[in-house]
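Q: Could you fold this chain for me?
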Amino acid sequence: MKIRDIVNRDIVNLTNCENEPIHIPGSIQPHGLLIGLTKEYKIAFCSENISTYLSFKYAEVLGKDFKDVFGDENFDIIKGSSLNANVLQVKMELEKKMFQCFFHQSNDYYVFEAEPCDVKIESVTDVYNQTLQFINYMNTTQSLKSLCQMVASETRSLTGYDRVMVYRFDKEYNGEVFAECCREDLEPFLGLYYPHTDIPVQARELYMRNVLRLITDMDYTPVPIYTIDDDKDKNLDLSLSILRSTSPIHVEYLKNMGVGATLTISLIHQGKLWGLIACHHYSSKNITPEIRLAAQLQGQFITSQIDVRQSNEEYEVSRKTNNALEKVTGLDLPPIMESFKIISVSPELLKLCNASGVSLYINGEVYKNGVTPPASVIPSLSDWLFDHSNDSSFITDKIIDFIPTMKSVWDKISGVVYHSLGKNNSIIWYRTETIIEVNWGGDPNKAIVKDENGLHPRNSFAKWKQISKNRSTPWLHPELNVAAKYAHALQKQINLMLLSDEEIKYRKLSEKLKESNEELQNINWISTHDLQEPLRKIQVISSMMLFKEKDSMSDNMIDSLDRVSKSAMRMQNLLSDILKYTRIKNADKAFELVDMNEILKEVLLDIKDNIIDTEAEIVSSDLPSVYVVPFLMKQLISNILLNSLKYSSPDRKPLIAISVEKEVKDVNYGDSTYFKFVFEDNGIGFDQEYAESIFNIFTRLHSQNEYMGSGVGLALCKKIIQAHNGYISAKSSPDKGAVFMVYLPFQDDLKQN
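A: Sure. Below is the predicted structure, expressed as structure tokens.
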């Protein structure tokens, strides 16, 4: 059986440490032993130092069953835990020695770790009392900072470490020592900042998975883990391991600080790494599992209270900003452009989010107050923010990072809160620069030291002062919430203004249309009265000349006078049809329930001569009573019948059939119910491509020489039926006759309208 270790021997330095696989070091710290088990509980991995604590060597246990090595009783404990998918922490007796054991699943393996119980055993009662005392103290703190300070003090008292810090990350993961308790002879780190490179990305990810990390002796020699060499890629993920060996870069960094042992507890808030409780000791140190758990519990106290304490601190800000919001939204302003000028100079608009200045950009006009960019710059700035935010919002406390080309504008202004109110509409709040003094624990620009041996973490942690410029104080959540609420209210104000503008435009347009209609009515009056009189005279004179002088006239003269008379008659008919077409309006009050059979009788009586002349036959089924305007419906039926008689076929006698269907629905015109009146003739018909255009005014399919007419009749039918909330359609083919379908709303629908 061939055995090999799984130690990661890749060279790690500061050029590649961000890619270091710290979760698979292949080694552990020496203050305990580690065994990796398969799902069948066979020992697949074993740390070299098992012989330090027990009577056998790693090569003797690899490949064996756990219960054969450690007994049935211990096997039953870990098997029960694995079946319930639990992380086990329990004391076990191994070869008559007591060990604190930890058991968890790691991908396809189980990891079993054991530490000898040779450190001072703490009284569970003492730990409980101290934790209970801390909870009582915790309720006396008001701010988050005071709570963190108490946690630092109580954790140091509980664990005995020389220095305990609450380390808080900013949005770039630079760390700040937010609270600290340390030995009096030590230089305090409180308030110092450390660059994000001190804790690389993969280390932060590991802190999210394993919330407690312990290094008992910085001078430890890593203990390799061995396995049977049956797979070249065989490895063991130690992300959740208590004993996992630490990155040599991290160890060197801590040694440079003079640290001999550490305890680190992750502070996770809203799914992100908020900070750490970092405990440093300047010699080797180990603590019992009970104290580790109590310290971890104090970290959870912090994360559970972050929202509460921040809310307390932001309450006063929220109260003031909401008061300002009530005042500015309570302004009684008309929906006109002048209102935005009044809004912009309101002091409450600045108080909404404690801004130094504000600008409104509405329909190309700029209104501003306080410290803002020049008015000439605001439109282009608004356009850039509109595009960059995708017509949404944009917030920053350092605008120069996003628009460095406008450096001269940002000499005084650093913070920006932008809300889009649509294209060419925006509101922007501004904050002036706040010069911030940041104290770093060593020069962040010299976090890496290069010497003859290569790259190393810095060994100087002396305070290094940096002046931060071009940045405003951060925007707080209450300020941003109120700004968003007011932007929404302002959007409504703009919409009201636009509606008001549209209403004014509509009113002016209505007035113009009214004037135009009055002019058209005057023109119509002239066309139907003043123009018809000379036409009548033309007809009378031409008739008299034909009657008295016919014998003395040549045939050409007689033909010319006859054509003049007919042209005058056609003109009269056209003017009469135009008059009828334009008078179809405001007929709502004339609707009444009418028997369509009676309407048809009246129409047939009126066109009796036409029927006789064409020898036509008109048949009809029984027609219903409908709500219509009687004289318009009479005009409609008359026009349809006369149209069919006019375009009758010379090869057969005209036949017109009238029928009706009740409660017909047509999805093209909604779900309303209609009476469908059908007028079917056997005339000359027409091509179906003209089925819609024949209802357009002045549309003719034949010349005047073939068929007399004005081209208004069917357009008049369409307008009449539209006045009744119905519709008309036709279908035909040449020499096959035509079918006209008139849809009138069913009377119950018409009553509802």
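A (continued): The radius of gyration is 48 Å.
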